[in-house]
Design brief:
single chain; 109 residues; mainly alpha; globular
Length: 109
């Protein structure tokens, strides 16, 4: 939510169309997902809620999409049940490659 509401620079700088794709609908979806996770009593329930969200046909894996942020965080926590093969559209974030791409397009970090 910090990225969406406060403009924090997670996963690189925002593109020209980022705010058109990630508006109030995305914030509402994030809050709804957080409420579902917070209502869980067991780790297996959390896993099911997250996997259901990530495998939903409407879930997107753009650079600043909620799903990408979630997978980044799960990887940093070294969650053993996370299987990236299930999410072929997910692109890992590499700060160096983003900076290089931005400099190639005249964007200053």
């Amino acid at each position: 939510m910090n990225w969406s509401e406060n403009g924090e620079q997670h996963r690189g700088a925002n593109g020209w169309f980022t705010w058109f794709r990630h508006g109030q609908h995305g914030r509402n979806k994030a809050k709804e997902l957080a409420a579902k996770v917070n209502a869980c009593k067991f780790r297996e329930e959390v896993q099911e809620v997250i996997e259901t969200f990530l495998t939903d046909k409407n879930t997107r894996f753009n650079n600043h999409s909620l799903a990408s942020f979630i997978i980044d965080e799960l990887q940093s926590l070294k969650v053993i049940w996370l299987d990236l093969r299930l999410y072929p559209k997910y692109k890992p974030f590499h700060e160096e490659s983003v900076k290089e791409s931005q400099s190639n397009h005249g964007v200053k970090p």
